[in-house]
Design a protein that fits this description.
By secondary structure, the chain is α/β, with parallel strands linked by helices. The chain folds into 2 domains: 150 residues, Enolase-like, N-terminal domain (Enolase-like, domain 1, 2-Layer Sandwich); 241 residues, Alpha-Beta Barrel (TIM Barrel). It contains 16 helices and 13 strands. It has an 8-stranded parallel sheet with strand order 6-13-12-11-10-9-8-7. α5 crosses α15, α8 runs parallel beside α10 and α15 crosses α16. The relative contact order is 0.13.
């Protein structure tokens, strides 16, 4: 079997691109948009429609493998690649990418993704091919290999990495968006293992002294008993986008900060709590130093709240740096930012046998195609948790990721369909 042709189709993503710098500087929300001028290069407005680029690989047997080039909501922030425009990169996929892939054997997943990694920079930006392109093309190559082998993408990845896949669905992490109460209640009703994200991305939402986050966690803990199924024991995970650092400031091992995290722990009790992106220190080295300082300070104070690396933790090298420094209890592996999907899988594996857990994340601004591909990465590596994506409505992303894992596990267990003939 061979790859016969490559198509690139501009499509839409599951959410929006947001100029994080402008929002952090106090951009005023206007309904679903924002007032003011963008400050991050490439943005035409502070919030603009998300884009994706679907890559289709037509195989010689007539089957078609698919992947979606997509970038994160806060593109261009925290050391990430610039804003992704589908039309800008459409000709790249139809040109240099297609030139490398046509006539190749789709079974050779590792060789094929290596070819894409070796492609030179485009548009003279001095960097590698945009992470979104490498992300989408690698998904299509994973799908092509699974099609050629008549197996699951989970098995293709597990063979490439030498891993033993999960035998049960990986815990799914739901994200609420700004509708943080109604969507959290949906999560509780469905018994989502990790919730609710919360989107505390401004001082106003967190509260000048962090009061609103404390109140929210206390409310959430109370609602578990009201709405959750019997025996439900969720983990709370809240993303604060560096705002705690803006409210309290360094040094991050001082008693005032430990006391605040202790109050958050008490508010969430009896449920375990992890806080993502407590500060944004401005560079990877500074972020690692700040996160490690906070983690040590919380440990010394006996505060049992885990901290999650996000800002400045974008590439496989970044993940290794945070893990090696012991700077986080959990690292988010932000799949579009790592480029080729194989890098996300290897980043999860790097966390194994360390005291840092791997959260296979990504973005609300992805697509159903990339979300399904990431479900296979989660299964192949048995990650600690996986993000429900795309979108900020929760239900759709949770359905897509959960169902892909359940269907895959049923295939791998070779469960017989109802009414299937049996042999004596």
């Amino acid at each position: 079997m061979r790859i016969e042709r490559v198509r690139a189709v501009p499509t839409v993503s599951g959410f929006f691109f947001d100029d994080q710098r402008a929002i952090k500087r106090g951009a005023e929300q206007d309904g679903f948009g924002y007032r003011g001028e963008p400050v991050t290069p490439g943005f035409d407005s502070i919030r603009q429609a998300g884009e994706a680029l679907t890559v289709e690989l037509e195989l010689s047997d007539g089957s078609v493998a698919v992947g979606d080039c997509a970038a994160v909501q806060y593109s261009g922030a925290g050391g990430r690649d610039p804003l992704f425009r589908a039309e800008t990169y459409r000709d790249v996929v139809r040109g240099s990418v297609a030139d490398e892939l046509v006539r190749r054997d789709p079974d050779a997943f590792a060789d094929n993704v290596a070819v894409i990694e070796a492609l030179p920079a485009v548009h003279g930006d001095g960097g590698a091919l945009h992470t979104a392109v490498r992300y989408g093309v690698s998904q299509a190559l994973l799908d092509a290999a699974a099609t050629a082998r008549r197996t699951t993408p989970t098995d293709v990845l597990a063979e490439a990495l030498g891993t033993t896949p999960a035998t049960e669905p990986v815990p799914v992490f739901g994200q609420s968006g700004d509708d943080r109460r109604a969507n959290a209640e949906k999560m509780l009703l469905k018994g989502v293992p990790v919730l609710p994200h919360g989107l505390f991305n401004s001082v106003e939402k967190l509260g000048p002294d962090g009061k609103r986050l404390r109140e929210y966690l206390a409310w959430l803990a109370d609602r578990v008993d009201d709405l959750g199924p019997a025996g439900y024991d969720p983990r709370f995970h809240v993303d604060v986008y560096g705002i705690i650092g803006e409210v309290f400031g360094p040094p991050y091992d001082r008693a005032e900060l430990a006391e605040y995290f202790s109050e958050l722990q008490a508010a969430a009790d009896p449920y375990p709590l992890q806080i993502e992106g407590p500060m944004d220190a401005g560079s990877r080295a500074e972020q690692i130093r700040a996160m490690a300082t906070l983690r040590d300070g919380l440990a010394e104070a006996g505060v049992d709240v885990d901290i999650v690396a996000d800002e400045w933790c974008n590439t496989a090298g970044d993940v290794r740096a945070f893990v090696d420094a012991g700077a986080a209890d959990v690292v988010q592996i932000k799949t579009p930012d790592l480029g080729g999907i194989q890098h996300s899988a290897r980043a999860v594996e790097y966390c194994r046998d360390t005291d840092t857990r791997a959260y296979l994340g990504g973005s609300c601004n992805e697509t159903e195609i990339s979300a399904r591909a990431c479900a296979h990465v989660a299964l192949a590596t048995d990650a600690a948790q996986v993000l429900a994506k795309p979108g900020m409505g929760f239900d759709e992303g949770y359905m897509i990721v959960t169902n892909e894992m359940r269907r895959t596990l049923a295939r791998r267990r070779r469960e017989d369909p109802v009414g299937a003939p049996t042999t004596d």
